[in-house]
Amino acid sequence: MLKNILISCCALLIFSLAIGKDKEIKKVDFKKDIWPIVKRSCIKCHREPYKKNGKLKKPKGELVLTTKKGFLKGSEEGKIIIPGKPLKSSFYKLTILPEDDDDIMPAKGDPLSKEETALFKKWILEGAKFNKWVKEEKKSK
Predict the structure, then answer these.
(1) Considering the domain boundaries, does residue 79 fall inside one?
(2) Cα gap 88→67, rounded to integer Å
(3) pTM, whole model, 2 decimals?
(4) Which H/E stretch holds residue 52?
(5) 4 located within any domain
(6) What pLDDT does 14 receive?
(7) How confident is the model at residue 137 (pLDDT cuts 50, 70, 90)?
(8) Quick one: pLDDT at residue 10?
(9) What's the total number of domains in the chain?
(10) Which residue pairs from 128-131 have beta carbons closer than 8 angstroms and sit at least 24 positions apart in sequence?
């Protein structure tokens, strides 16, 4: 009898630990989760100055999103990310505006999906960590 109770308790403990692992909340990883969205939707307008047809092209709003330094510097209007505060972070706020709002980002192309904006929000809530990511990796030729 005691042996059966002990076995049942052990099984319950192991089962509880297994369920607990499944419920662990995965942290947002900038390079894996955020960067692909930024690369696809933002850097066409928000990258370092470059020459095109002999003419210098500057980033819109003086915002460079191809480097950690650029993210942290922000735009001509100031910081775009306030760690822990998505609703004070224009990086997030401008992506959740109504589609017909003149200030929605991205300005060109399709708006971000709800899943993508939720990732931005979660990343900022978690402290907007870049981990080891420093800048866009250039493709080797």
Answers:
(1) yes
(2) 21
(3) 0.79
(4) strand 50-52
(5) no
(6) 52
(7) confident
(8) 44
(9) 1
(10) 128/81, 128/83, 128/84, 128/89, 129/30, 130/30, 130/68, 130/71, 131/29, 131/30, 131/31
